[in-house]
Design goal:
Helix 2 runs parallel beside helix 3. The radius of gyration is 21 Å and the shape is globular. It has two domains: 121 residues, Mur-like, catalytic domain (UDP-N-acetylmuramoyl-L-alanine:D-glutamate ligase); 152 residues, Protein-Tyrosine Phosphatase, Chain A (Alpha-Beta Complex), CATH 3.90.190. The longest helix is centred in the middle third of the chain and has 15 residues. The protein is of the alpha/beta class. It has a six-stranded mixed beta sheet with strand order 4-5-9-6-7-8. The chain has a three-stranded parallel beta sheet with strand order 1-2-3. It is 36% helix and 14% strand. This is Mur ligase C-terminal domain-containing protein.
Length: 300
């Protein structure tokens, strides 16, 4: 990256053993950790403490570390222990004290994410970073696939050009993300119920993904994302019948459930149902699924 003076690399999985953690302390200005949830347990550990240990592996001697104060106490305890072990200052931020600008992104949890980002920006101490530039940046931020309101033109599926369906795209794929999605949907419900188009990556723990978002009046359409994810041949979707069996095993109440292995068929089914019921359509369960939805539109 020619002429680049600073970069903000995002950890892939965990942190302690992630490739991004090769950056030495003298080349690192600040590190930050947002909300830690149960995810990638097969790689990071089965408990929040074990996962937090991997996450806080990015702490470096003398480099300021910032963490979201809304984390579970077990996570914060690990962060405090790690900061003492490596010798770095730790800042535990709280939205009421540290979030001085309103996030544009949807979802209450964005206040917590922004609190971490704002504290990190203040610790960099770069004259180019001012309250004005931060405010402009926050107000212009777009995050595809995270509570993204998206109008899908049905002509890409063979419908007439004036036919479209409004989707809420969210890549929620773990317990914490599902809980946050559920919180946001609760603000929209009132008398409105939802049609969920769901696909999930094999290996994900399904025990707590459905309950935070689905009610007895919702319709579920299980589908699958493309199984040829570039550069990651091990990434595969759950079979739709396995997902249907899982939600029945959990005893979660719903209005109706459909299985459509092909994403195009799932969107068409959601469109037909929404035309009759006026239910809002939510696409969730995997960022790979969200990417496939956007790709369908772009390819057309």
């Amino acid at each position: 990256m020619p002429n680049t003076t600073s970069v903000a690399p995002k950890v892939g999985v965990g942190g302690r053993l992630d490739a991004t953690n090769v950056l030495p302390p003298d080349r690192t200005l600040v590190v930050g950790i947002t909300k830690v949830g149960l995810d990638h347990q097969n790689l990071l550990g089965k408990t929040l403490s074990e996962i937090a240990f991997q996450k806080t592996g990015i702490f470096k001697e003398g480099v300021p570390a910032v963490i979201d104060g809304s984390n579970d106490e077990a996570v914060l305890d690990v962060a405090e222990a790690e900061s003492k072990e490596v010798g770095c200052p730790l800042y535990i931020v709280k939205r009421d004290e540290d979030c001085w600008v309103t996030p544009k992104l949807l979802g209450d949890y964005q206040y917590d994410n922004l609190s971490v980002a704002l504290k990190m920006a203040s610790l960099i101490r770069d004259s180019r970073i001012t309250k004005d530039t931060i405010k402009k940046g926050v107000e212009s931020t777009v995050w595809a696939g995270r509570l993204q309101e998206y109008r899908f033109n049905m002509c890409s599926l063979g419908y007439e050009k004036d036919k479209s369906i409004d989707l809420l795209l969210d890549g929620a794929h773990n317990t914490q993300a599902s809980i946050e999605l559920g919180k946001y949907l609760s603000t929209l419900r009132n008398d409105n119920d939802f049609i969920f188009i769901i696909a999930i990556t094999q290996g994900k723990h399904l025990s707590a993904l459905f309950k935070p978002i689905i009610t007895s009046k919702d319709t579920i359409i299980f589908t699958q994302f493309s199984d040829n994810v570039d550069g990651m041949p091990w990434i595969k979707p759950f079979d739709v019948l396995d997902l249907k069996k899982e939600i029945e095993t959990q005893g979660i109440e719903y209005d109706d459930v459909y299985t459509c292995p092909q994403l195009k068929d799932a969107i068409s089914q959601a469109y037909k149902i929404s035309q009759v019921t006026k239910k809002k359509v939510v696409v969730c369960g995997s960022l790979y699924l969200v990417a496939d939805v956007l790709r369908l539109q772009l390819d057309s």
